[in-house]
Amino acid sequence: MTEQTIKRIREFVSDRDWAQYHSPANLAKSISIEANELLECFQWSDNDYNLQHVKEELADVLVYCRDMLDILGLDEDEIVNMKMDMNEKKYPVEKAKDNSKKYTEL
Amino acid sequence: MTEQTIKRIREFVSDRDWAQYHSPANLAKSISIEANELLECFQWSDNDYNLQHVKEELADVLVYCRDMLDILGLDEDEIVNMKMDMNEKKYPVEKAKDNSKKYTEL
Amino acid sequence: MTEQTIKRIREFVSDRDWAQYHSPANLAKSISIEANELLECFQWSDNDYNLQHVKEELADVLVYCRDMLDILGLDEDEIVNMKMDMNEKKYPVEKAKDNSKKYTEL
Amino acid sequence: MTEQTIKRIREFVSDRDWAQYHSPANLAKSISIEANELLECFQWSDNDYNLQHVKEELADVLVYCRDMLDILGLDEDEIVNMKMDMNEKKYPVEKAKDNSKKYTEL
Fold this sequence. Notes:
Strand content of chain A: under 5%
Oligomer: homotetramer
Order of helices and strands of chain A: HHHHH
Largest interface: A-B, 63 and 63 residues
């Protein structure tokens, strides 16, 4: 996400004084709620989905994730790279290749 | 997210040949599943959460969102700005300020 | 669910003094969290699931639903029949037959 | 749930020929989607919720759980009691009393 888009999201929140509602817990609920509106695009079919709806709901998830990074003062690249370090250890290529099993079952 | 982090996520997937599992529907499920692991950090308390767990689960949501952008060939800034256009119309400042009501009830 | 099973769930909660954590909001989070552990059984495949895991996670959803009925003093049959009245109006047989569209698109 | 209510749910499905959409995976998605509509009742506040909405969304979760029990040929009391056996072992009263920690941290 560019700095300009991030700035737009922050101004959207501050213009409406919505930081008061953005506790980490409320944002966690919001991310789950939007993730399920995204999931609803695929409720009865994996392939026959409305791409415009998918874009809108995925964007909603991303916006609330941005809000959560902001409220907690987190750096997106830092936490993603920290988690990728863990994922690379949990799913070594030789075991995980062509395999969708969870690491606990690999 | 920097290009370098995006590249790392893409290589993680391609090294394991996991694109075969990354249908949009499966990724929508995955985003919801990880969003709920994030929500679990706040299951019984809004304030007494483990920040390290929050970082890990939020990162997981972001990684699957990145995978979904990739599989659908979407540009993150484009879809977020498209949705922000909609949000700004649905939630005009004069109505939405200091108000957490849904746009359908404003 | 038989009265005996309901009684067992209630005693499980009261023996542990867990009613203090069972606010409606916390139980709503819990239902979503367990619903997503159920969804995880189908994360990468619709057909290749572990039936024992499915049973356990579906049971968890049902137990938290029971807890929510209890905390709010609701009667399961009453609310389900109230909702079925609504569903039967939203999805008239002649329009909804062989059709998975949402009522807003029927 | 009484036999009469269960019968009503089954006829609702069969009258519309909807069993064709009721794969276990689709129902797992549906339970999660409805659980998140329930969660939305508590998105910005734990206490200021609309009870009528809560009843409707909780009913939706229960109806899809019933559909899933039916499609898999499961007995509700059997799977709940099987899970309660597990829960009672994972959360012994002396450790779990007045404590909301997950069993892995008890």
